[in-house]
Amino acid sequence: MTGSLDVRDLTVRYGAVTAVRDVHLEVAAGEAVAVLGPNGAGKTTLLRTISGLLRPAAGSITLSGRDITGRPAYRIARAGFVHAPEGRSMIAPLTVGENLRLGGRGRPRAEVAADIERMVDLFPSLGRRITTKSGLLSGGEQQMVAIARALMARPVVLAIDEPSMGLAPVVVDSVLDALRRVVESGTSLLLAEQNARLALDVADRAYVLLNGEVVRTGRSDELGDELIESYLT
Predict the structure, then answer these.
(1) Closest Cα to residue 62, out of 81, 85, 43?
(2) Is 97 strand, coil or helix?
(3) Is the pTM of this model over 0.85?
(4) Would 138 be classed as within a structural domain?
(5) Is residue 198 classed as helix, strand or coil in its secondary structure?
(6) DSSP helix, strand, coil percent of the chain (3-state; round to 5)
(7) Distance between CA 183 and CA 180 in Å, rounded?
(8) What is the bridge-based pairing of β-strands 157-161 and 5-14?
(9) Is 91 helix (H, G, I), strand (E, B) or coil?
(10) Sign of the CA dihedral running 40, 46, 52, 58
(11) In whole angstroms, how far apart are CA 141 and each of 8, 58, 88?
C-alpha cells in the first residue's frame, strides 16, 4: 500500500515565534524525500506538525488525498502517516518484542507475528535481542527498534527524524540500507536529517530548510557539495 503527502503553505508558531513559514512539500507514492537543514532549521517542528503533535497556524496537509490538517495524532497515524521521532522514544522496561507488538496493536495476533518476522528480516540483530529490555540496547539497536515499531503500524508514509544521530558509521549504513528496502517495498519515506550526504544517498529528492523556510529543493543527484557548502555547514 502506497501513499502520498502534500503539504501546502504550512506555518507553525510557538507563541510569537514563527518556527515554520509557508512551507510547501510533496512526497509522491513510493518516493523517498529528505528534509535537510542545520539544528534549529524547523525540521522537527515540520514533522511533528504533519503527524499531529503540533497544530499549524496556517496551511494544509493532505495524505493520500485526505485532508489531515489539525487532526489528532492517533487519527493521523491510523490514516497511514507514522512518525518515528528524534530520540527514539523507547519504552525502556519493555522488551524489543513488546515494543514491536505495541506498534501493531489493534490488529490480529497472527498479522502482528508475521510483521515481527518481517522486522527481524529487515533488522537481523533484533531477532537476537527480541526478549531483551529495550533500555539495555545500544543506541543503534534502539534506533532499529524505533523504525521497526513505526513500520509495525503499516504506514503508507513513514517519517523519521534524525535517524543517524549519535550512531557509529557502520550502524548508520545498516539503518540506511533498511530504509532503502522499505522504500523498495512501496512505503513512502520522509526523512529529516542533518547529515545531508547520508540523506541524499537514500532520498530521491530533498528540501533544504533554513530558519523555518524552504530555501532550495531538487533531485538528490542535482544537490551535492555546493548545497552542503552553501547551506549546511
Answers:
(1) 81
(2) helix
(3) yes
(4) no
(5) helix
(6) 40, 25, 35
(7) 5
(8) unpaired
(9) coil
(10) positive
(11) 35, 38, 10
Report how many domains make up the chain: 1
DSSP type of residue 70: T
In the predicted structure, residue 229 carries a pLDDT above the cut 70: no
CB contact set of 34 (below 8 Å; sequence gap of 6+): 191, 192, 193, 196, 199, 200, 202, 203, 205, 206, 207, 220
In a domain, 171, yes or no: yes
**Residues 90-108: pLDDT tens digits?**
788 899 999 999 999 888 9
Residue 1 identity: M
Residue 56: give its domain's CATH number: 3.40.50.300
Single-letter amino acid code for the residue at 129: R
Three cell numbers at 200?
541524499
- Domain membership of residue 143 (yes or no) is no
Is 30 part of any domain? yes
Distance separating alpha carbons of residues 210 and 11, to the nearest angstrom:
14
Dihedral angle of Cα 223, 226, 232, 233, to the nearest 10 degrees: 160
